[in-house]
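Revision sheet: C-alpha cells.
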Amino acid sequence: MLLDVARSRADSVALDDGVRTRTFGEMLDRCLRFASFLRHDMGLAPGGHLSLLMGNRVEGIELLLGAMMAGQWVTPVNWHLAEEEIAYVVEDSGAKLLLTDGRYAEVAARVVADRQETAVIEVGDGLDALLDAVSPRALDLEAPAGGNMIYTSGTTGRPKGVKRAAPPNVGELLVQHERLGQNIALDGVGPHLITGPMYHAAPLMFAVYDNANGAPIRIMPRWDEREALAILVEEEIAHVHLVPTMFVRLLRLPEEERAAFAAPALRQVLHGAAPISPVVKRRMIEWWGPILLEYWGGTEGGVNTLIDSQDWLAHPGSVGRALPAFEVFAVGEGGERLPPGEVGDLYCHSRVSDRPFEYHGDPEKTERAYLAPGTFTIGDVGSVDEEGYVWLADRRSNMIISGGVNIYPAEIEQVLVEHPAVADAGVFGIPDEEWGESVKAAIELREGASASDALEAEILAFAREHLAGYKVPRSIDFEDRLPRHPSGKLYIRRLKDRYWVGRERRI
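Predicted:
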C-alpha cells in the first residue's frame, strides 16, 4: 500500500505536473499534515465534506488523499461549470472547506461570499505555510475513512453527488486503493499519465490506484494531442487513461506524425466514460497495438466490466464481461430478468455490498436506482449475450420515441462518424406533430469539408446503407464544434433545447 511504497521509495518522484514535483516521502508527509490540519486544527469530524476547485496539479492528489485519511468526503468541482453551478455543488455538498488555486480564487471567493460556514484556502505558498506549521501526527489506521463524492455531469438536469460506500477505516482504504489498481492491471510499473481533468473520477482515481502500487503520476495541465504523444515517448509512460474524443483527435494528426510515434514502454491504455466507434477503436489498435483495455461502469458502481484488445477484436463493440465482484444482466419494463441477447435496462449486482452507493441528500433517487439489495442501474440500456459479454445500446435518458418505437442515438452516431467527412456526431429527438419525435443529427465536419445541401444528402444516403429507415435522421445541423465534456460525454441538452423550448418533453 501507499505507506509501504512511501517508506521504501521515499526519495523517488511520486507526483509531477510539469511545474511541481513531489517525492513519495514528501507526498505522504503532506497528506498526513493535511489530515491532521482538518481533524485537529479545523476540528472537522469524520463524515464532513470539502471541495476542490483547481486545475490539474500535484496538490489535487495530496489534498484528496489527506482528506480521505481525515474521514472527509471530497468533491472535485468541474471548473467548466458556470459560477451558479459551482455554488450549487458547494452548497449541496455541505462543504466546510473550498480549496482552490490562483486561476479560480476569485470565483471561489464569490461562491462562498454568503456562506460563513465554508472557508477558502488557496494552494501554493499559503497552503505550504499552513502545512509547515502543522505538528505531524501518526496516522491512525483504525480511524474512519472518507471517500470521494463525485457529482454527475448534469447533462440532463441538476447534478447529484454520488457517494460510493467508504471502507470502514483508513487502513482498509489504503489496501482498497492497492487492490483496485491490481484488479485492472495497474500494478505500479512505470509512470502513469493523467491526460484528463482531475475533477473527473476516472483519470483521477485510476492514477491514485496505480500510485498506491508504486507508479509515479505525471499530470498534464490540459489535453493536447501532440504534447501527449511527446510525453508518452520521452517520459516512458507505462499507463494512461484516455477517452474516445482523445482517440479521434489523435487520429486526426497528419499521417507522418502518427507514423513517427513509437512508445515501447506503453503497456496499457485504459478507456471508457463514453461510447466509442468500432472504427475508431480498431484504428487505434492497429496504430498502438493490442494494449487498449476498455471498461464500462459509472460513478455509482465504478468499473463493472472489462475487455482487452484481443477479446474486443473477437467481439467488436462489446464492453466486456463482468468483473468477479459483479453480475450484469438486462431487465425488462416489468422488472423481469431478460434472456440473453434481449435489450433492456442494464443492472449490476454487487457480490460484496448491499448498498455500493447512494445519491447525496436524495434517498428517493437512491431507492429508484436499486432493484433489490446490491442490484442497481446507472441508466444504460443494452443486452448480455450467452457468453456474458455486455453490449450497450444507449442511455435510457437519451432514447428517442418516434411513433411508439424506441430509437437509441448511440447506434446512429457510430454509423455517422464512419463517413469520411464527419469528425463528430450527436443524435437526438426533436418535436414531430405526427410521430411525437423525429431523429435529428448534429455533425461536426472534418477539416477541409464544407457544409452544403449536397453533403447533407450524401451523409444521409450513407446512413441509409447501414441503418433501418426509421433510424436515419430526417435532417442534419452542421455545427462548428459539438459541445463535449472533457470526459467525452456530449452535452446533448445544448443541442436539443433549442427545439423543445415551450414544449412538454416526451422523454
